[in-house]
Amino acid sequence: MSYAIKLKRSANKDLKKIKGSYLEKSFLQIIEQLRKDPLAPNQGFEKLVPPIKGFYSRRINIQHRLVYKVDQDTQTVIIYSAWSHNR
After folding, report:
1. How far is the first Cα of the chain from the last one, in angstroms, to the nearest whole number?
2. CB–CB of 77/4 below 8 Å?
3. CA-CA distances (angstroms) from residue 62 to 23, 30, 79, 82?
4. How confident is the model at residue 85, as a pLDDT?
5. Residue 17 lies in a domain
6. In whole numbers, what is the pLDDT of the chain averaged over residues?
7. What are the protein's GO molecular function terms (predicted)?
8. How many CB atoms are located within 10 Å of the residue 65 CB?
9. Is 64 among the domain residues?
10. Which of 1, 11, 35, 59 stands 20 to 30 A from 66 (CA)?
């Protein structure tokens, strides 16, 4: 079973910054892992707490993270952000 990946508008803007940068390889590796199983224990994700409960975070590097939500009903990973978490 494979999950679909959907990027929100904010994540699309972040993707433009990532493409061609040194972060692109790490980003693509994370996307591949999320496609397989976004909630696998070996993913190294952080479960975010309120006010953004239900979201997860994966580090791209020490400064940047990928923030996403998993819709189990549609088997979709929705990516909200892929840039600095210190905006």
Report:
1. 35
2. yes
3. 11, 14, 19, 13
4. 60
5. yes
6. 91
7. endonuclease activity; hydrolase activity
8. 22
9. yes
10. 1
Domain membership of residue 33 (yes or no) is yes
Domains in the chain, number: 1
Sheet with 76-81, strands from edge to edge, namely 4-7, 76-81, 65-71, 55-59, 46-47
Whole-prediction pTM: 0.86
Q: Is residue 54 part of a domain?
A: yes
Q: What's the per-residue H, E or C state across 52-76? A: CCCEEEEECCCCEEEEEEEECCCCE
Q: How far is CA 14 from CA 18, 42, 52, in A?
A: 6, 25, 19
- Segment 32-49 shows an average pLDDT of 89
Domain that holds residue 9: 4-81
Tokens standing for residue 37: 């199983």
Residues in the chain: 87
